[in-house]
Amino acid sequence: MIWDALAFKQRKRPSPLDAETSSVAGRISAARAHKQQGILDAAEKLIRRYGHAKTSIEDISRVIGTSRADIYRFFPTKEALDQRVFARHAHFILERARDAARCETDGSAPLLAAIISLVEQTASMIECEPHIQQLFATAFAKDWEAAHIYISQVLALIEAIISDGMKTGHFAVSDPAVAAQRVLTSVIVFIHPTLVTEAALKFPSLIPGPLTQIEPVLAYLSASGRK
Questions:
Q1: Residue 3: CB partners within 8 Å, gap ≥ 6?
Q2: pLDDT on residue 164
Q3: Whole-number Å distance between alpha carbons of 100 and 163
Q4: What gap in Å lies between CA 111 and CA 97, rounded to an integer?
Q5: How many CB atoms lie within 10 A of CB 141?
Q6: Which of 24-28, 61-65, 188-192 shows the lowest per-residue confidence on average (mean pLDDT)?
Q7: Local confidence band at 15 (pLDDT 50, 70, 90 cut-offs)
Q8: CB of 49 within 8 A of CB of 85?
Q9: Final residue belonging to a domain, choices 24, 54, 76
Q10: Does 9 map to a domain?
Q11: Dihedral over Cα of 187, 192, 197, 199: its sign
């Protein structure tokens, strides 16, 4: 923000040439963004069908009718491209969880709605999108930055909902960040792509009832709010 303000102060008076240059730059930027989205669309389609490990840059270039070199102009490595596809799905999951929380207003309902959304979307991905689930598992196994951002944004969502609950008087925890950590810890096994599959194999009785893990934490938060 400071850099933007400084740049604005130092900007010279615009001229018709500046406007034309800006217009051309805008069209180039839009065309580049469109091309990048086309690459991501093709990559996602192939990953859904064959898996990220079996999807190559050559496969993607063949689908969209371009060269491998052209794809590398936008994504320096295949892993960078995989991370962007992962980020797309992670963003979608988070947006649906946010929407679920917005639809509720009373008590613990927004927090419970967000958590249930995350749990159900993870379960649905495992059942219906096994190649996407494998992409998520790889993201966490390889410690991708995008995976860290995803979890940090899940935590931020939970913290924001708890903070809103404190404003309405439903929650009275001393530190919403600490409370959010506790909530996430209680449900991480159900939203982490590797932990949830391991739990399904080793502790199958946990999977049908994730609320057994969530409800005690919600009860603790609500009880705190009534003190």
A1: none
A2: 92
A3: 17
A4: 10
A5: 12
A6: 24-28
A7: very low
A8: no
A9: 76
A10: no
A11: negative
CA separation for the pair 46, 28 (Å, rounded): 27
C-alpha torsion angle, residues 138, 47, 206, 225 (rounded to 10): 80
Q: Which helix (H) or strand (E) holds 147?
A: helix 145-167
Distance from C-alpha of 45 to C-alpha of 203, rounded to nearest angstrom: 33
Residue 222 corresponds to which tokens in the numbers above?
């609500």
What is the Cα–Cα distance from 93 to 150, expressed in whole angstroms? 10
Mean of pLDDT values over 141-146: 94
Query: What range defines the domain where residue 179 resides?
Result: 79-225
Residues 19 and 104 in one domain: no
Q: What is the dihedral of CA 189, 146, 49, 35, to 10 degrees?
A: 160
> Does the predicted model carry a pTM greater than 0.90?
no
Structure tokens at 157: 């969502």
Q: Please, is 44 exposed, middle or buried when counting C-beta atoms within 10 Å of its C-beta (0-12, 13-18, 19+)?
A: buried
Three-class DSSP category at 85: helix
Q: How many domains does the chain contain in total?
A: 2
Scan for tokens 């080793």, then name that residue.
Answer: 202
Question: Tell me, what amino acid is at 169?
Answer: G
